[in-house]
Amino acid sequence: MKPAQVQSQLTRVLSSAIAELRDPRIPLIVTVDHVNMTPDYGLARVYVSAIGADMPALLEALTHARGHLQREVAQHVRMRRTPTLEFYDAAQARF
């Protein structure tokens, strides 16, 4: 698969998986703005935003749920190996 296809699939899968998380630090609407993959597909940098959210707490909650989110990616995206997910504030990112 091409990197752009993988990134769009990851964006879609992560958006729905994050929406299903039940953590008080995660607001109801979290937007996955962009996913950046390393060339070897070993690492996915996920840029998220949420209106009025406490971003440090949100990023901490997503990092805490990383294992669950990686399992969701493994189930829904056909790849040789599932990338490690890292979460960043989209407002402070330069794509």
TrEMBL record:
It holds the Pfam family RBFA. SUPFAM superfamilies: Ribosome-binding factor A, RbfA (SSF89919). InterPro entries: KH_dom-like_a/b, RbfA, RbfA_dom_sf. Gene3D superfamilies: 3.30.300.20. It is found in: Cytoplasm. Keywords: Cytoplasm, Ribosome biogenesis. The keyword Endoplasmic reticulum does not apply. The keyword Ligase does not apply. One of several proteins that assist in the late maturation steps of the functional core of the 30S ribosomal subunit. Associates with free 30S ribosomal subunits (but not with 30S subunits that are part of 70S ribosomes or polysomes). Required for efficient processing of 16S rRNA. May interact with the 5'-terminal helix region of 16S rRNA. Belongs to the RbfA family. Monomer. Binds 30S ribosomal subunits, but not 50S ribosomal subunits or 70S ribosomes. This is Ribosome-binding factor A. It comes from Deinococcus xinjiangensis. The gene is rbfA.
